[in-house]
Write a structure and sequence with these properties.
alpha/beta; Rossmann fold; five-stranded parallel sheet; 6 helices; about 50% helix; globular
Length: about 130
């Protein structure tokens, strides 16, 4: 089963009706089961009101939703700790997204591939 976790960047570009984003996400939906998580949904709805775009709400509602587990929180903290020792600062939100993707075996679809340098996570740019 091919799983793909949509990063906030992709959901926001989808919401902005960028044609190339929408076309690529439709293309990926033929090859992958697309999903979201608390971080990506929260970041999308930080920029708009839920209920003002029923089409977008329906799209997001139909994505597989992966909860953040206690183990994900620990893994995210470990990512931050490990990379900080190398002088690389990672955000808590990105490390949580990475931890979820690692647990479920999903590729992260993002425009910020550099934010996911973990060895056990695969990140792919939408328009690569």
């Amino acid at each position: 089963m091919n799983l793909m976790l949509l990063d906030s960047t992709e959901l926001i570009d989808y919401e902005r009706r960028k044609p190339e984003t929408r076309a690529r996400i439709r293309e990926f939906s033929r090859q992958y089961i697309l999903g979201s998580c608390a971080i990506t949904v929260a970041e999308l709805y930080a920029g708009r009101l839920h209920g003002t775009d029923p089409g977008l709400d329906s799209f997001v509602d139909n994505l597989v939703y992966w909860d953040i587990t206690y183990a994900d929180a620990i893994r995210a903290g470990q990512y931050r700790w490990q990379f900080a020792r190398r002088g690389i600062q990672l955000s808590a939100t990105d490390t949580l997204i990475a931890a979820i993707a690692a647990r479920v075996g999903a590729v992260i679809l993002t425009e910020n591939v550099k934010d996911f340098p973990m060895d056990d996570v695969s990140a792919q740019a939408l328009l690569a």
